[in-house]
Write a structure and sequence with these properties.
By secondary structure, this protein is of the alpha+beta class. Helix content is about 20%, strand content about 40%. It contains six helices and 25 strands. The protein has a seven-stranded antiparallel beta sheet. It has a six-stranded antiparallel barrel with strand order 8-11-12-17-14-13. Strands 19, 20, 21, 22, 23 and 24 form a six-stranded antiparallel beta sheet that branches. The longest helix has about 35 residues, at about 1-35. It is elongated, with a radius of gyration of 27 Å.
């Protein structure tokens, strides 16, 4: 009798464990319903979108001093097929300085890109293929409609050279919006990036960030790794698709992004906030002036230091580009400049001057 009771208790315990497992599975399924809606949409998104996310291979010939011969360098990333005309969008840093750019489809087809159009200041490039791909393009969503906490799906081809994990799908949430202070040298102007915690790794650059409807809402461009000895996980940043849409439209029509500008190249100059003897102030150092441009006609000179634009203190390139991005061709930009260098003598002036210039912006490209 005692043995029968023991067996009964053992059987009862096993049933309880089994029931707990069923309840746990049901709870997990229910949690997917809560997070994703009526069902988990990721498998359907992956099935539809993976064929339209291609691998991008860029090659250039260079000289190896170590080997004493010419060698070929390659770069790798991802790209998204966005329309039926044969266009793929990717990151500029994936294809910069390349002699040849190719794409490789999920099916294994390798095709040479016919033309590359780029906008280095937003880290975007548009690749034109000889013929459309036999896949469904990824529909474009609305990045302005994103909310923190909603589903974020990333598809790309992480890995390098021959070790590539084709069509990798990762998922997480939108962790932050309008991240303006994220720049690893890939942006020449302010881009309000989308922060996600979905895994992004080398090779994912230029791939797809998708919402729960499988629409393209961003292009992964960089991942925060470490800083000052601290390691970060789950900090990925993407270019919003609404920025991509504007840049792509101009690249298709003009081959470049046409922005009103003065016609100068500048470099950020560190220094004191105000001019002191022997030290120019912090600002934007003019290092090139294009002939025949509004800047050249205004009297602006090489090595002038721009300290204010329309009355606003400027020290970084984005301080100036944020301002000019709100202006149109024909608008006048008022600059305050410190002229403290003598190019002929290649020395600082004993009596530096503060000068004012009004420069009309024009579309020069």
């Amino acid at each position: 009798m005692k043995q029968q009771k023991t067996r009964l208790f053992t059987l009862l315990a096993a049933l309880i464990v089994c029931l707990a497992g069923i309840l746990s599975t049901a709870a997990q399924a229910q949690s997917y319903d809560v997070i994703y809606g009526q069902q988990n949409p990721i498998p359907d998104i992956a099935e539809r979108v993976r064929p339209a996310v291609v691998r991008v291979i860029s090659s250039r010939e260079t000289w190896s001093r170590q080997q004493g011969r010419r060698v070929e360098e390659s770069g790798y990333g991802s790209g998204v097929y966005i329309d039926g005309e044969g266009y793929v969008v990717t990151n500029y840093h994936v294809v910069s300085d390349a002699d040849v750019v190719e794409i490789e489809t999920l099916a294994g087809d390798r095709l040479t890109v016919q033309q590359v159009f780029s906008d280095d200041s937003t880290d975007l490039a548009l690749l034109r293929l000889e013929a459309p791909l036999d896949v469904t393009p990824v529909p474009l969503g609305d990045s302005d409609a994103l909310r923190i906490g909603e589903l974020a799906v990333v598809i790309g081809h992480p890995g390098m050279a021959d070790r590539v994990f084709f069509g990798t799908v990762t998922a997480g949430i939108v962790s932050g919006l309008d991240r303006r202070d994220v720049n690893a040298g890939n942006f020449g102007r302010t881009v309000n990036t989308i922060q996600v915690d979905a895994a992004i790794n080398p090779g994912n650059s230029g791939g797809a960030l998708l919402n729960a409807n499988g629409e393209l809402v961003g292009i992964p461009t960089l991942k925060a790794g470490s800083e000052y000895g601290e390691n970060y996980e789950g900090l990925g940043f993407c270019i919003p698709v609404n920025t991509v849409r504007e840049v792509v439209a101009q690249l298709k029509e003009y081959g470049v992004v046409r922005r009103p500008r003065m016609g100068i190249r500048i470099s950020e100059l560190d220094g004191p906030d105000e001019l002191i003897p022997g030290y120019p102030p912090a600002g934007l150092l003019v290092i090139e002036i294009e002939e025949g441009t509004p800047a050249a006609q205004s009297g602006l000179a090489l090595y002038d230091v721009i300290t204010h634009a329309n009355g606003t203190r400027v020290k970084q390139f984005t301080d100036l580009s944020d301002l000019t991005d709100t202006m149109s061709a024909g608008d006048v930009l008022h600059l305050t400049v410190c002229r403290c260098y003598d190019p002929a003598a290649q020395t600082l002036l004993d009596d530096p001057q503060t000068l004012e210039f009004d420069i009309e912006l024009k579309v020069l490209d």
